[in-house]
Amino acid sequence: MAEIIAGVAMSHSPMIMTNEAGAGEKGQRFIQTAAEMKKWLENVGADVIVLVSDDHFNSYFYDHMPSFTIGIGECEGWGDWQLPKYKIPVQQELAKHILHTSLEKNVDFAFTLKMKVDHGHTQGVYFLNPDLEIPVVPIAVNTSAPPLPTMDRCFQVGEVIRGAIESWDSDKKVAIVASGGLSHWVPIPKIESEKPEDQFLINVLKNGRQEIDQLDEYLKLRETNVTRIKSGPVNEQIDREFLRLVTEKDYSALRSWSAEFIEEHLGNGGQEIRNWLVLLGVLQGFETDVACYEPIPEWVTGMAIVQFTQPVNQKSSKSSEYEVSI
What we know:
CATH superfamily: LigB-like
Helix content: 25-40%
CATH topology: Protocatechuate 4,5-dioxygenase, Chain B
Shape: globular
Strand order of the largest sheet: 4-3-5-2-6-1-8-7
Largest sheet: 8 strands, mixed
Number of strands: 8
Distance between the termini: 24 Å
Strand content: 15-25%
Order of helices and strands: EHHEEHEHEHEHHHHHHEE
CATH architecture: 3-Layer(aba) Sandwich
Oligomer: single chain
């Protein structure tokens, strides 16, 4: 059977690509820590990365918004925010096994044979797997378009993914990566806004990419809305509280956080911590270490990296069957 050996949860921000220098020493510490995580995943011998992140209204819109999507075929990056248009190798056997096993456990992933991912996923690839040497299972969580899956449901989905991996008939070593958060406020209008200046973007959010007559204009507008922000609010206090609950394994507290609480204290962009909850559902019992935390207003985000290492008494030992009640 396959073995889960490691995990990395990390923030992402498009401003890393457009304003790396603006974050100064704090930004360089984050980037250096990400490089260390890349090397660590290589050293522990990860054969596959299950990569959990979100879409930012590039692939999914209100015309079709699944809560959880898994790529089981091809996967390509949009190339947004100056990131490469990666053609990401997918570990299709594991991806399909997770899909089918999850259906048996009453988790109905949306699935696609031709997945397109934006910087949420590709920044994780950029920092941890830029040479595409490790095949990936891409999973997308809806963190952008309310109503959102609950934190509890995200954790439950992680539990099911864990059971699927551990029942995969393979000797592969699997690492879990979650990309997103922490606190940040994204300049995108709420779908119910009636402000005239919001209606162009809202029309796109409602009707999807195919409704965009001027795609370049749309992408440029979104980039301008973000890059004109030279410094954005970051809630360091709640970021550190979130990281404390992660490291102390207080999953019950995190599972109870509501979308309203997260929006108030971590911002609409902070809803991305759902990706971390999926990872936590997989990696229960793993040892955790906050490798890096930097509040970086210049990147409009609280930037963290947490390393998850296999407990000594669990190394090379896998439960015969992993059951979870949904």
